[in-house]
DNA sequence: TAGATTGTTAATCGATTAACAATC
DNA sequence: TAGATTGTTAATCGATTAACAATC
């Protein structure tokens, strides 16, 4: 184990490893070599060995990797062997998607409460999760352990929410507003920028035409 | 204008530039230097100048960049000055979020049709968009210009959908299933892996503890 | 033992940052 | 003109790929 912080590209690949290893496990495959896994995942064997060696020596020379062992290792690395508690703020369609997402629960995540400002929604229950008035958020956070807050409100509401979250024990914000949030360093912000994602796709499918247009004008 | 393909990191930053430039424009700022913009966006001035020079010379020495001009340039680069037509497959909460997302419409995107397999949903209308039987997808794609298909179905349904999409004129897939989709090279796949995103967040907030645990065991 | 495959060191590639001449 | 700031070339940094000794 090295002590330096793990590099971003490696972190980004971990969930993907987890998915592929899970599939292999489901198919009762026992072992896999870095080159077989590389072929499956469209990576190089070198990269896989480099990535894994960030965390330790999990392979066996001449044999490869035990899938079950590697799967459990990655699972643990991702913190999925302990329950992570999530509060959802904003119960619009996006908030509902999260609360109803079936695969979160059996992967170490648990929704503990939902919040909204809409009187119609407050007091209702979604998938077994209560919807509270967002005004009660600070009090709730001070009396309950919440690891992650998912923010699915309009972006104007977010700045004030971050302020309230910042004085709690929350360690992560899952940001669905389409704007960067400024949070203290102790809180990690993971962004899901749907509009950015769609624009990237738009760029990619138009790349040739767009760049041609551009050169003409120059 | 260089002719080589634009690098991935640059493409990823374009929507973010677009957001910040839009905000500046809304605040009636006329001009900005690379170092001011860098400060605002938490980048380096060097990087901004490098990024922009991928596409042309938009700045003026001693002055900086005209925000309006730069904004329009990025907008055009992202293909937002022409309408991009999107069909949504799967009208669960996630599909609903997309169809109701207010900011897509005034940004050059248009939903043309929604599809689902649920008899209850077929024939209904969401935000003015009809929901058709997914069985009619191939026919619809053959008679209508659709640029992007957003897939929000369970992942088991996706493989078959991709096959059908592959024989159409669709150029991009916006993939919300939590699995990699194999599509022909002519179709660009942009992934939104919500579970991966949450797992990354989980890793980050637990990084210290997790890595400590790991070193103990070794 | 022979063959396979790891973990790691070295080489390469690509992206970011720094420096500076060109020029508004 | 003097000051500011670009676009670009060069230097640095970091990530990926290749190579190979160690070893199951």
Description:
Two copies of one chain form a homodimer. Chain A is of the alpha/beta class. The first copy, chain A, has nine helices and ten strands. In chain A, the strands form two sheets. In chain A, strands 6-7-5-4-8-9-10 form a seven-stranded mixed β-sheet. In chain A, helix 1 crosses helix 4 and helix 2 crosses helix 3. The model of chain A has no long low-confidence stretch (mean pLDDT 94). Chains A and B meet through helix 1, helix 5 and helix 9 of A and helix 1, helix 5 and helix 9 of B. Chain A binds a DNA duplex (24 and 24 nucleotides) through residues 7, 9-10, 33-35, 44-47, 49-50, 52-53, 57, 59-65.
Which key terms come to mind for this protein?
DNA-binding; seven-stranded mixed sheet; homodimer; alpha/beta; three-stranded antiparallel sheet; 9 helices; 218 residues
Largest interface here, residues on each chain? Answer: A-B, 64 and 64 residues
Number of strands of chain A: 10
Number of helices of chain A: 9
Give a short account of the largest sheet of chain A.
7 strands, mixed
Beta percentage of chain A is 15-25%
Radius of gyration based on Cα positions of chain A: 21 Å
Note the overall shape of chain A.
globular
Low-confidence stretches of chain A: none
Oligomer: homodimer
Structure, briefly:
The structure is a homodimer of 218-residue chains. With 218 residues, the first copy, chain A, is an alpha/beta fold. The first copy, chain A, is built from nine helices and ten strands.
């Amino acid at each position: 184990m090295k002590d330096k912080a793990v590099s971003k590209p490696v972190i980004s690949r971990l969930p993907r490893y987890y998915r592929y290893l899970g599939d292999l496990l489901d198919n009762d495959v026992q072992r896999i070599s870095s080159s077989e896994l590389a072929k499956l995942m469209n990576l190089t064997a070198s990269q896989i060995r480099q990535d894994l060696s960030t965390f330790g020596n999990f392979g066996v020379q001449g044999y490869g990797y035990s899938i079950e062992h590697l799967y459990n290792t990655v699972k643990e690395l991702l913190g999925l062997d302990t329950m992570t508690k999530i509060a959802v703020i904003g119960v619009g369609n996006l908030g509902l998607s999260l609360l109803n997402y079936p695969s979160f629960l059996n992967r170490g995540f648990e929704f503990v409460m939902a919040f909204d400002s809409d009187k119609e929604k407050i007091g209702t229950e979604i998938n077994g999760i209560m919807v509270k008035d967002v005004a009660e958020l600070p009090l709730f956070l001070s009396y309950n352990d919440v690891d992650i807050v998912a923010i699915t409100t309009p972006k104007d509401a977010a700045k004030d929410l971050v302020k309230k979250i910042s004085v709690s024990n929350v360690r992560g914000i899952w940001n669905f507003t389409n704007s960067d949030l400024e949070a203290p360093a102790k809180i990690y912000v993971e962004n899901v920028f749907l509009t950015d994602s769609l624009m990237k796709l738009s760029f990619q499918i138009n790349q040739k035409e767009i760049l041609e247009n551009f050169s003409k004008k120059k």
